Automatic annotation (TrEMBL):
Residues 75-183 form the Rieske domain. Keywords: 2Fe-2S, Iron, Iron-sulfur, Metal-binding, Oxidoreductase. One of its GO terms (molecular function) is 2 iron, 2 sulfur cluster binding. The keyword Iron applies. Pfam families: Rieske, Ring_hydroxyl_A. PANTHER family: CHOLINE MONOOXYGENASE, CHLOROPLASTIC. It comes from the Bacteria. This is Rieske-like 2Fe-2S protein. Its cofactor is Fe cation. InterPro entries: Rieske_2Fe-2S (IPR017941), Rieske_2Fe-2S_sf (IPR036922), Ring_hydroxy_dOase_asu_C_dom (IPR015879), Rng_hydr_dOase-A (IPR001663).
Amino acid sequence: MALKTVGDQGRKTEAGYRSAGTLYQELLDQDSRPVPPVLRLESPIEPGVTRVPAEQYYSKAIHDREVEKIWKRVWQMACREEDIPEVGDYIVYDIAHLSFLVVRSAPDRIQAFHNACLHRGRQLREFDGRGAQEFRCPFHGWCWEIDGSLKEVVCRWDFPEVNERDYHLPEVKVGTWGGFVFINPDPNAEPLEQFLGDLPRHFERWDLANRFKQAHVAKILRCNWKVAQEAFMEAYHVVATHPQLLNGIGDSNSQYDVFGNFSRAITPNGTPSPHLRETPSQQDMLDAMFDRNLDTPPLAEVPPGMSARQFAAMLSREGMRAVIGDEADTYCDAEYLDSIYYTVFPNFHPWGAFNRITYRFRPHGDNPDECIMECMFLAPWPKGEPKPPAAPIHWLGPDDDWADAPELGMLARVFNQDTFNIPKVQLGLKTMKRPEVVFASYNETKIRHFHQLYDRWMELE
């Protein structure tokens, strides 16, 4: 679990091995504000590498087993509450070949149903919608109220055994947390609160329910959903995939922790990568943090006597002051700068503090070689003003460029670098001489933890 790290100036030392978590905690000791207890938590995984059969990423039989063992039985994020703000608003949530309707059936009630007519099985809805007063099947006209109760059967006399009790739309369990709506098709599933465990405590300071969906981009990728999400669960890939960021990101000095059904990584920013042979200037660190191209002017000049980390935190704090007022002073530098990214099993990735990112990864139909990657931006809005409407989803095809979604800003370039690799990973998995992949003891903690949970669910009877 210990990693060879660098000294304070970014050069390799012979002082031996120290844990990345210890280094991050030492960085917090230098913060300009009190650091919240949640960032002081340390819960490392047991040391040891994890080996996973390569076929888990491309086998149709394993995909089918995932549907039965995971997608039909686990809590999964379906949408944001603001996606369905008014009575009758609904979204269609698809996972593999399963489809569900998630609807606001009353001002304070959200329900979810299997998205299929109980007559001949035709999907009731194919697209999201607003203000529905009923769900009428386009095939023969059978109709249900938005609370799932049977409303009308065309030629009712011809179906003497059809009744409301037996033909109420089959319902699935619904839970909410942080402004997100979760569903679970398993009627015997544990409550959402029990499944999430201590996750709400981690987000007490960063209440995601008080954010609005500023952007939502979905892209179809030519790789398995696990290949895609694992590329976003560690900072180990930065040195090779995002070299332009190395001056300002402590990639291999990240802290990784595991907690029940979720895990966390914290990657420090405004500090150089331990992979660099020489110490970058403070200005180079600042420019790297904002992924500045060399042919564009710097965002700002680091003042004499300040570090890039201190200056970047000051800039972020003042920028946030326009939104949350003097409450901005109650947050520490790390909350403004560092990448604090969680993974909730199986496919939900909310980020902490003021980073706006939330990811979701899911299969694209029943093709184990394709998936859907989604990135949402959740942002606070000025106090006293009405909550802005949720951004609609912006779909990108497998051959589209992330830059076709300008709402992503500088992340589009980073995503292009990531998604250049992962379709080639999918191909390579099928031609590997060794029949397994191997995950690092510490740097790939979150992936190891995911596979521990994955194996547990896949083995459940």
